[in-house]
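Cross-check.
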Amino acid sequence: MKLSLLSKFTLVSFVLMAIIAVSLAWGIQQQLEQTALWQEATSAADEVTGILNPNLEKTDLTAPLDPARYAEIDALIRQNILHEHIVRVKIWSRDGLLLYSDQQDLVGQSYPLSDELAKALKGQIATDISTLDKPENAQQAGAHSQRLLEVYVPLRPMGSPQVLGAYEIYHDLTVVESSAASISRFVWSEVGVGFLLLFGALFALVRNA
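Predicted model, tokenized:
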């Protein structure tokens, strides 16, 4: 059966507009989700640096902490930082030595610098969606089944203009993912409605013509 000109136009325009609508919705969704993750990461970074930077000394970053100093920093972190959403904190030296972790048996070990950690040691905040597959996370992979946002933050102790180490923060993504799901539903529904209205108006215009 031969399609009429109107039928051909309807089919082709529907396919093209659907492709454009899907691409637009996906792009907007990705951008909004990345923005939400970055805002969450910088908020966590500000929280940790505001508490720890004034309480760390340069000597804390040259070798594993002695038991008394570890206990002081550990108490500070557990009382003021670790909570429902920030579930783990680590402190790294410039050469990849783990100086502090709330999982104490990891302290004092050296690991290869990840790309994100290397970026933080150069003075920039870096993020990664963690699957807990890095060597230093082997013992905790079963502790958190949900995805975690890893945030790497340059460490400048009080009185030091230079980056002397880095913080690694593990942030629970439950709240962010809930927000991202709401954003996704909103974007797809709005783009879908807009697509149907635009296509309907175009079809009516062409049919009348």
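Residues 96 and 113 are 6 Å apart (CA to CA). Residues 135-145 have pLDDT under 50 and may be disordered. Passed to J.P. for a second look.
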